[in-house]
Amino acid sequence: MFNAKKIFLCVMLAISTEGMVFGNLAEPAQEGAGLTFSHVEVPGLSHRDGSGIYDQMVREVCRKAGVTCKFLFFEENARSLIEANQGNVDGTYPRISAIEQRFSNLVKVPEFIGIRHFVAFVHKGGPNTIDWSQACDLVPAFPHGWQRLHQEFDHCPQHLVAPNPVRLFQVLLQEKVGIVVYSLKSGRSILSDLGVPGIRVLHPPLDERKIFIYLHRRHTKITQDLAKALQEMKLMEYYSTFFTQEGNKRL
Q: Strand, helix or coil at 144?
């Protein structure tokens, strides 16, 4: 079923010119000025046109904190992180906790915006439950730039990495990999759009991590302002359901 040679696919798509940032075109935000955030497509949650729930939340958080914001979309998750860490943009989202251990110029807004459930998707047969070591044995596919998954799977003899999450499920259907490890909510959103039957989600999740907004360290002083605004938002009817435990089970 699988090629005996190590599978490692990392299709580096050209970054859209809409989302490109060169040099220091994004100037450090001053008090009262706006923030520029890098972001990527997270099906069902963050979109190129800024219409996702995370996009709306970041926009509202900034408004409540008294700053304007704009978004720069990147096709590639890793590039979005690098631009934020280098200070070419002012921040990035949605990011799991602890990325600052690798990207030392990023500081976390200390109030989560969601919970990401890392789950395994299988096609046709396969196990009913799975752990990290078993996932490695089944030839996993996962998104490029998701550091939590690189940590678990980069050592696997065979694995596949792709920047486009839709591609992950395509290769699963083609039986080029045994499982896809991805976000529960976004994975279900992709499968709904594709209209593909026969792909199952394995429970319980492999891991759960809170999701945060990160800023470049030059904006450390306003992280508490954004956190306070986010806390206030969680009391608003529009967002309250999203922040409940039941709502986050769908993330």
A: coil
- For residues 220 and 80, what is the distance between their CA atoms, to the nearest angstrom? 19
Token duo for residue 105:
């110029």
Angle between helices 53-65 and 223-233 (to 10 degrees): 120
* Judgement on whether residues 109 and 120 belong to the same structural domain of the protein: no
Q: What CA–CA distance (Å, rounded) separates 43 from 25?
A: 28
Say whether both 189 and 202 belong to one domain. Answer: yes
CA 117 – CA 48 distance, rounded (Å):
22
- CA-to-CA distance for 214 and 230, rounded, in angstroms? 13
Its domain, for residue 237, covers 33-114+209-242
Residue 66 sits in the same domain as residue 102:
yes
For tokens 């699963």, the residue is 172
On whether both 229 and 200 belong to a single domain, the answer is: no
From residue 231, give the alpha-carbon distance in Å to each of 54, 220, 228, 240. 15, 18, 5, 10
Task: Tell me whether residue 250 is exposed, middle or buried, using C-beta atoms within 10 angstroms of its C-beta: 0 to 12, 13 to 18, 19 or more.
Answer: middle
pLDDT digit string, tens, across residues 163-188: 888 999 999 999 999 999 999 989 99
The model's pLDDT over 78-94, given as tens digits with 9 standing for 90+, comes to 899 999 999 999 999 99
Residue 202: DSSP 8-state: E
